[in-house]
Amino acid sequence: MEQGHVLDSSRKEGEPMPWIAQTLATHPQIEAVVLVSSCGDKAELERELRRRVKRFLRFDATTPVPLKNGYETPATLGPDRMAAAVGASVIYPRQNVLVVDFGTAITFDVVSAAGVFVGGNIAPGAECRFKALHHFTRTLPLCELPESLPQQRMGTDTLTAIQNGVVQGIIYEIEGYRRDVESRYPDLQVIFTGGDSYFFAKQLKNTIFATYDLVALGLNRILEYNAE
Fold first, then answer.
1. For a 10 Å CB count at each end of the chain, is N or C smaller?
2. Whole-angstrom Cα distance, residue 49 to residue 68?
3. What global pTM score does this model have?
């Protein structure tokens, strides 16, 4: 990221250090790294990163952020949710924002115009719902998101019944959350992020800002905040 813009992004599984070393070698201009980890001891990785870059920040529940955290159990709040909330406040400063993050779970989080992470809800994501229907009923096939939805909102066979049921259910959730949150936080802005964000942004008529880079934008702002 440079001057608030994402220059490149990629995902890798397995041992991270070889990929990190290659990335740093390919992009020698990288001066700062933010480490976010929810699994295992990363002390060795942290030591290596501190050695390789000028600025290093390990982001967790104790890291200062430019929002007031209204979550009653901050230690259990996923760092990606807080980073996305900070990113939302960068895109829409001093405005009420609903952040919808589409992943394994769908999270609905609210950031107030006063700069407070109000909190939010967690629901099963689309893939999780498809797998649950297949696993717990045994007779229903395993489905996935279609490239596009038919005009007919009621399924005409088992495949479209499942796809429409999952997709329309999520859409109704989003619309319900939007109405409810906006009744308490006027002039609400809505941001979609995560893997399925663009798919669902196309399904809603209301204006939605969709970006895959919201967490990265928030992490960059947190890095800057801790350097001030």
1. C
2. 29
3. 0.90
- Catalytic position from the list 41, 60, 80, 180: 80
Question: What are the pLDDT digits (tens) for 75-107?
Answer: 999 999 999 999 999 999 999 999 999 999 999
Sorted by where each starts, the structural domains of the chain and their CATH numbers stand as 1-60 (no CATH), 66-228 (3.30.420.40)
Mean pLDDT in residue range 26-40: 82
Instruction: Return d(Cα 40, Cα 32) in angstroms, integer.
Output: 22
Q: pLDDT per residue over 6-21, tens digit each? A: 777 777 777 888 888 8
Residue with tokens 């969709």: 210
> Which of 217, 223, 226 lies closest to 89, judged by CA?
217
Q: Report which of 88, 73, 104, 60 is spatially closest to residue 215, judged by C-alpha positions.
A: 88
Strand, helix or coil for residue 193: strand
Residue 40 pLDDT level (bands cut at 50, 70, 90): low
76 to 72, 80, 116, 117: CA distances (angstroms): 9, 12, 17, 14
Fill in the DSSP letter of residue 97. Answer: E
- Summarised one tens digit per residue, pLDDT across range 194-207 is 999 999 999 887 88
Q: How far apart are the first and last CA of the chain?
A: 18
DSSP E strand stretches across the chain = 32-35, 55-58, 68-69, 97-102, 105-111, 116-124, 189-194, 209-210
